[in-house]
Design a protein that fits this description.
Layout: H1 26-30, H2 41-61, E1 74-75, E2 85-89, E3 94-97, E4 99-100, H3 101-118, H4 125-136, E5 143-144, E6 149-150, E7 155-156, H5 157-171, E8 175-177, E9 183-185, H6 188-202, H7 207-210, H8 222-245, H9 255-269, H10 277-294, E10 321-323, E11 330-334, H11 348-355, E12 365-369, E13 372-375, E14 388-389, E15 396-399, E16 404-406, E17 412-415
Length: 417
């Protein structure tokens, strides 16, 4: 059979983790945020308040560690900012958003509450994050499609009307209609909670029957397929990133079913044809295979079975070079545990040039002479001396446009201006 005797790829058995906080030291936690160096004292005060509220939430709600979003996947943001950051993998050609700190508590709580109520029928946190980042880039104020869709999940007016007509008692807690017939979410939390309730509920509403007039599986367009590929890749990327930081995996036994449902219900709400189950399976298999061959990571527990003969060809070299583009964005490398900064660069010259940039002030190369550190100011004068750097795992290094780095094993943090 297709799903027998092959190695597993992604997240599997759920072992309920006992409650444990990632840390109770706000100052130390703050330094792990991707944009910590850009935070002024006012930002630090606001983040301290946000983080302490998380501590209280973990304790009050007994949120297990595997439902806590890792600090290394968060960026600081207050309620007045819309700036966002992206983790981008050049080899896999996929980026996902760092979760803004003003939304983290909502996502953690709603994912945990949904799991307590529905078990594995609840959408995985990775699916919800992938969908909301794709739809709105974590912007609660986002309005799209000629004012027809809004908020983090980009809820369409047509869908909102259908939900009210079908089950007003449930959905009036999430959104309302003004006198002109426009829909509005009641709060940012309602936007976060929405998909955790929507996906399980919509399966019981005969939603597909309601939109039968647009249902033509043979007519799936390129736009729908590209959307499905994007959400699938981002969901898988989030799953993999969570795997690196959480000792206990999320319960993702219904991951594929919920992922497919989220994609098709979104397409139908847009008056687009849903994707045929067989085609959806093929798209997902390709995404998995491409992810497995391009994004070289070892997961701690495996979940999906991918036959070796169906896997896409591996990259010829695991040390491909990647040229950081000139595109108005800021790119950073976050040095991982077990790695040294030299492993990320194509040459010592590229590393030296990078560390000389003003945004990397404080980082430097050095050699030892008479038991003292001597900073390197000219590589040509180093000779045969052993060169070191003062960069530690967890440090964030700005990568100037035009820099060549080694890509498949490197995630880039991208600041969207």
């Amino acid at each position: 059979m297709l799903f027998q005797n092959f190695r597993l790829l992604f997240l599997g058995l759920f072992l309920l983790g006992t409650f444990s906080a990632q840390g109770q030291d706000v100052a130390a936690d703050m330094k792990r945020l991707v944009n910590f160096k850009k935070m002024v004292p006012k930002n630090q005060t606001i983040y301290t308040r946000q983080r302490k509220a998380q501590y209280e939430s973990w304790k009050k709600n007994q949120i297990p560690s595997n439902f806590q979003i890792p600090l290394d996947l968060q960026s600081y943001r207050d309620d007045n900012s819309l700036k966002y950051y992206v983790i981008y993998n050049p080899s896999y050609k996929t980026g996902v958003g760092y979760v803004p700190s003003n939304l983290v508590q909502y996502y953690e709580e709603e994912a945990w509450f949904a799991y307590q109520k529905l078990g594995s029928d609840a959408p995985s946190l990775s699916i919800v994050l992938a969908q909301q980042f794709t739809e709105s880039a974590f912007n609660p104020q986002a309005i799209g499609d000629n004012n027809m869709s809004l908020g983090l999940p980009q809820l369409y007016l047509k869908t909102a009307k259908y939900l009210y007509k079908t089950d007003k008692e449930t959905w009036k807690e999430f959104f309302y209609f003004d006198k002109r017939g426009k829909h509005h979410f009641r709060s940012t939390r309602a936007m976060v909670k929405f998909p955790f309730v929507f996906l399980p509920a919509i399966k019981n509403y005969q939603f597909e029957t309601k939109f039968e007039s647009i249902k033509s599986y043979n007519g799936t367009g390129d736009e729908a397929i590209k959307y499905a590929e994007k959400v699938m890749r981002r969901s898988l990327f989030y799953e993999e990133l969570f795997a690196q930081y959480n000792a206990v995996p999320l319960d993702t036994s219904h991951f594929k079913e919920n992922l497919f449902g989220m994609i098709n219900f979104t397409l139908m709400a847009r008056n687009q044809n849903p994707i045929d189950p067989d085609l959806m399976d093929k798209i997902f298999a390709n995404a998995l295979a491409e992810f497995y061959s391009g994004y070289v990571r070892t997961t701690y527990i495996q979940h999906y079975q991918v036959p070796v003969f169906e896997n896409l060809p591996r990259f010829a070299s695991q040390e491909e070079d990647y040229l950081v583009p000139v595109d108005g964005k800021d790119y950073y490398i976050i040095v991982e545990d077990g790695q040294v900064v030299y492993n990320y660069f194509s040459s010592s010259e590229e590393l030296f040039k990078t560390l000389k940039h003003i945004k990397n002030n404080g980082y430097y190369l050095y050699y030892i002479e008479k038991r003292k550190r001597v900073k390197v100011t000219d590589l040509k004068k180093v000779g045969k001396r052993q060169v070191y750097s003062n960069i530690k795992p967890g440090d964030k290094i700005y990568i100037p446009p035009g820099t060549i780095i080694k890509s498949p094993k490197t995630n880039l943090a991208v600041m969207i201006q």
